[in-house]
Amino acid sequence: MEKIVNKIDKNTIELLRKIMEDNLRDDIGKLSCVSRYLLAKGFSPKLHYDKWAMEKAYFGIGLASRKKWLAKILPAELLKRSLKRAVESIVTLSEGGIFYRYFPENILTPNYGYNWGRSANYIEINNRAIAKMELGKCSCGLESAIKLLPAIPPSAKSWANCIVLSQIFPNIYGDGYNKPDWEENSIYGIKLNIGYSQNIIDYSIISDISAEEQFKIFNELAHFRGLKTGFRTVISEDQIKYSRYGKDDENFRWDNDEHLELFINEHVKLAKLGFDAIFIDSAKHIGGYDCDNYTGVGKLPQYQQMQYILYEIRKRSGVSSLSFIGEKSSVDFERYKNMGLTAGTALVSADSFDEVKRWSDWFKYWREYAPGPEVSNDNDMGGRTYEQRLNRLNSCLFGFELASDKLPSFMQMEDLFPLRYDTSTHQLMMSNPSYSLDGSPLSHWENLFTTEDGKWYNHLAAEKFAYALAL
Question: Of 138, 209, 235, 365, which residue has the fewest beta carbons closer than 10 angstroms?
Answer without folding.
Answer: 365
